[in-house]
Every structure is written in C-alpha cells, then in structure tokens.
C-alpha cells in the first residue's frame, strides 16, 4: 500500500476577485466564520494523516507564516482569560504537522502548475497531495483521506483527482474528464476549462489531487497551454495518460466549497454556519426569518 504523508497547498495568488479585502490579507486567511479557509484545509489534511505541509506562498507575504506560528503574548492572554481550550484546538495543527513555506517562483509561467514546479525539489520522490488554498469541503469524512485511500489501494494508479458532477455554468471553470468506457472511475482524458460544447461530460475535477512523483517528469515550464496561455497541471496529467499511466477520480462525499469569489464565499459561509454545532440552529432560524420577511 502506497503511503501519502505530504501535501502541497498552492497559496501564492493575489486573490484579485476578492479585492480590496485581499490588499491587506492573503486570500487563504479570509475567514469562513471564525476560521480562515486554509485552516479548514489543514484540518482535512490532519484527519487524513498528513505529516508534512508545504505552503507555496506569495514571496512578499508573511501573513500565512505568521498565522501558523506561536504567539506567546496571545497565549498568555488566553490563559489568563481561561480560554485554553480554543488555544489547544488551534495549536494541535502546529503540533501534528511539519510546515515548510516556499515562495512561489514568479518567473515561471502563470497557471495552476506554477506552485508544483516551484516545489519540485522539496518532495523527496514521494507521492503527495496537491491542493488549492481556496477550496475545502463540508462533511464528516476527510476528502483528502478518501482520495488517498483510493490512490493507496491501487498500485498501478499514478494519480487520483477529486471530482463531482457540475452544472453547465461551472464546466468552463473546471477540469472536465471523460471516463474510460467499461470503467466507473478511470480517466480517459481531461480538458481544463473547456467550452461547454467541447466538454466530454459534466464531471468536474478539483483539489485535492493525489500524485505520484512521476508527475514532475511531465511538468515542463515551457509547455504553456496554447488555448489558455497558462501552465496547467491538467496537461501533464493528459500526457501521462497518453503514455499509459492510470488516473482515477474520487467522488467526494462532502460538499465542495470555495472562497474564490464574493458569491461563493457567501455560500461557503452559509453552508458552514448551518452545520456548525454551536450556531447551526440559529443560522437556520435566521435564514427562515429572512425568507419569510422577503415573501
């Protein structure tokens, strides 16, 4: 069984769709309720047994590093106020993972593969999880763990992509896959951000991805996608599949959420609020009250 203990989180963007909020705070730190988005992602990783977290960050930003650092003055204050519980809940992330913060190489072409090319020499020839810093999932099960389980149990599989069925409006924003005939989960090919009429299905992929280290043999910074003008990991996946290496999908049991733009950030906040054990019932009652007032 293949062991997966490392995760790479791409967090080097400017978050322009959330400007001006992202002028002073990195997008991964914008909160959904009382936790930044990246905090939910790391909780998922910890539940899946990940031990090393590599965060690829904007070279000029230190806020993510600061968030995952200890603060003696704050610790002392919370101890004095009898709030040790929330402190322990937070610091368990620091205690259970080793962190490495790598500045994204901005000399590489823009695209979702730039962070991977940046950290090529930091992964020690081991399989790993690749994640976006603005995507997470609700639910009781770890989406990362589900993908790792599928990857680990199938020795001839070189990658697993998390997937879900998406609406027509979402198809041009996703990597869309065609499933190989005669299988339920093997990818025949993938197209990144296709036009609606070119999409081979409505099965869209998103992080987390689980990759074997062979992915780096197919990631060429000079191989920019001609249609998109971007360096995309989906092109490397396609080349691997063409060379006979198997990739599969893992349908997430949880609900896909993102803070990638204002409306989706709002949706994510509502979804998390409704499932929160402390405020879920009050959130539901408030939304019902709004609905009744509007009607």
Would you mind describing this structure in some detail?
The chain has 295 residues and is α/β, with parallel strands linked by helices. It has helices at 37-47, 63-67, 72-80, 84-96, 114-118, 143-153, 233-242, 262-275, 280-294, and strands at residues 6-11, 31-32, 35-36, 52-57, 98-103, 128-132, 135-138, 157-165, 175-179, 187-192, 203-211, 246-251, 255-258. It has two domains: 6-260, Spore Coat Polysaccharide Biosynthesis Protein SpsA, Chain A (Alpha-Beta Complex), CATH 3.90.550; 261-295, no CATH class. The strands form three sheets. Strands 1, 4, 5, 6, 8, 9, 10, 11 and 12 form a nine-stranded mixed beta sheet that branches. Helix 8 packs across helix 9. The model has no long low-confidence stretch (mean pLDDT 92).
